[in-house]
Fold:
Amino acid sequence: MQHGAAMTHSPNGFDWDDLKHLLAVARHGSTLAAGRALGVDQSTVQRRLVELERRIGQSLVQRQPTGYRLTEFGQEMLPFAEAVERSVQAFERQLRTLGTETAGVIRLTCPEPIVNRIMQTGLLDRFHALHPGLRVQFVMSDKYVDLSQGDADVALRSGDTDDDELVGRKIGDSVWAVYASRTYIERHGQPANIEELAQHALVGFDDTMAKHRIAQWLRMVAPDAPMAARSSSVLGLIYSVKAGVGIGPLPLSLGDADPDLVRVLGPVAELSRIWRLLTTRELRRTPRVSAFFDFIVGEIETLRPILTG
Structure:
């Protein structure tokens, strides 16, 4: 704001908000009128302009008897300041849109066998009819996908959940039992109790799932039993047991629904956990995830048999 004098040009970081004061003075011709337009007092406008000039190392405005006008440098920088303003306004509009619009993709992670059972109920068709701007995309995995890292938005998850960043709703109980195929029973018989598991070929998870409660339970009750097959997924366990390779723990919802399988032990209380619908605290407040949660809560009676059997 120094008349006629150019400062040393050594631009440093500055507050983008100061550009609003420069633009207001350029448009209204005085710091008084600019202050009224911005809803601040005249001294605030003057102070912000002085700070902006200090930060960028150049005079931007000159005071004249009739008010303020831009310096030559200020005129050159004006279109760039206006471009910043347009970008900020576009950013704010997008924020408002995303904050109110129920649209977009919801990435739902769950074990692969659950997807087929969900699709058979028409549950997602009803959700999409209710919210045509939303689409559910499956992220299928038996491992815990990291919601806090953005790998998915919502999880249908059974097991222990001790992540303070996650919030959710209980859907039902995850219940497991030990199953064998009819052909396996014809050839090898079946265990009468858990202690006899060690006398049979077992099917279980591989080392990538070593922390899963099923893997830990089998190591505890039958540490010396031969492992006939290992898999990294529940679907792999089902295929191995159905093929008669061995016997192994499976969810009741899947084992009892398969006519080729026989429940030989259980349910096993030590394997029971809770099915939950989970997301992060931040995502729970977004319209799209909130809409999905509210819908699922209303459809719990439909979803529960899919998960619990």
Residues 2-10 have pLDDT under 50 and may be disordered.
